[in-house]
Amino acid sequence: MIKQSIITIATLGLFTVTASAYDTKGCVSCHGANFETAKVFGSESRAVKDMTSEEIVVALTAYKDGTHKGSKAMMMKGQVAPMSEEDIKTVADALGKKAEEKK
Ligand code: HEC
């Protein structure tokens, strides 16, 4: 019984961490409720809603490894730091869908 509770708690904990890493709620304060904002904070950024999943993966990966050349790249470096490669892919798939559907 006790063992099962511990497993349940551990599983819940894992789920919370995973869910928050994929959660894009924190992104909208800068990118707009529907990721429609371009030139966020005076940068050269595109509206994320118009980007394909692949473009989003490329951008987020570059922010993460520090190779992105955007003038405000530092702001995104902090955002993607806690994200795993898998998280980036999940977020990119979810956000990039709309642009791909328009094709
Ligand atoms: C603190 C404000 C802020 C938050 C929060 C934020 N971003 Fe950004 N984002 C920016 C800025 C500023 C840029 C442009 C940086 C540059 O100069 O390259 C950017 C750029 C991007 C780009 C690249 C756009 C392009 O044209 O290539 C993507 C994709 C992106 N953000 C996705 C996200 C996602 C997904 C999240 C949430 C996990 C997020 N952002 C959270 C400020 C933010």
From TrEMBL:
InterPro entries listed in its UniProt record:
Cyt_c-like_dom (IPR009056), Cyt_c-like_dom_sf (IPR036909)
Q: Does the keyword Nucleus apply?
A: no
Task: List residues of the Cytochrome c domain.
Answer: 21-92
Which Pfam family, an example, fits this chain?
Answer: Cytochrom_C
Q: GO terms for molecular function, please?
A: electron transfer activity; heme binding; metal ion binding
- Signal peptide bounds: 1-21
Which keywords has UniProt assigned to this entry?
A: Heme, Iron, Metal-binding, Signal
What's the superkingdom here? Bacteria
Q: What is this protein called?
A: Cytochrome c domain-containing protein
